[in-house]
Write a structure and sequence with these properties.
mainly alpha, Rna Polymerase Sigma Factor, Chain: A, 184 residues, Arc Repressor Mutant, subunit A, 0% strand
Length: 184
């Protein structure tokens, strides 16, 4: 898993060995992906930059413990999921603001896409945390149930069940929202 968008094995080996330039290159490479992951896990941008920095601080401290470079991407996802959970616990009861769609779209498409994206983000945000994490890691990060199980420390069979439940709840929530809009 360390190849491709997670960086190559040589870069990881150098970072694990204490090479600060290699670690900086990893940060540069992974930062956009970790920011997107944290945003998707939480549904708002609020403190994503601070949380991204926290992920990399924890990764730097944990580098010496990485033994299997093929699981480096999952290891980083694990750290991000933990940071996200901690933020969720901290924010319990605080209302969040859903971010608007990409402002570069044409006006009509922008409105339609923004409304749809907002509905999806709200529906994902409304999922229980365990289902939301599983769905985001599978859908947006492309991790397999086995890889998600390693990240979340849960059996792959349980992950498959969580994915089924998350997708079912998401579908029901979106159908309900669409039905309410058509009824107006």
């Amino acid at each position: 898993m360390s190849s491709g968008s997670w960086g190559d094995d040589a870069m990881w080996r150098q970072a694990v060995a204490g090479d600060r330039k290699a670690f900086s290159a990893l940060v540069e490479l992974l930062q956009p992906r970790i920011r997107r992951l944290l945003y998707r896990l939480q549904g708002f941008r609020g403190e994503v930059d601070d949380q991204t920095q926290e992920v990399f601080l924890r990764l730097m401290a944990a580098l010496p413990s990485i033994r299997d470079l093929t699981r480096a991407g999952g290891f980083v996802c694990s750290i991000a999921a933990n940071v996200s959970r901690e933020e969720s616990r901290r924010r319990r009861g605080v209302e969040t603001v859903i971010e608007p769609a990409d402002p570069a779209l044409e006006p009509d498409r922008k409105v339609q896409q923004g409304e749809t994206a907002e509905q999806v983000r709200r529906a994902i945000r409304a999922l229980p945390e365990t289902l939301r994490e599983t769905l985001v890691l599978a859908t947006y990060e492309g991790l397999s149930p086995t890889q998600i199980g390693e990240v979340l420390k849960v059996d792959a069979g349980a992950i498959r069940h969580r994915l089924f439940r998350a997708r079912s709840q998401l579908k029901a929530a979106l159908q309900s929202t669409l039905f309410q809009e058509v009824s107006r």
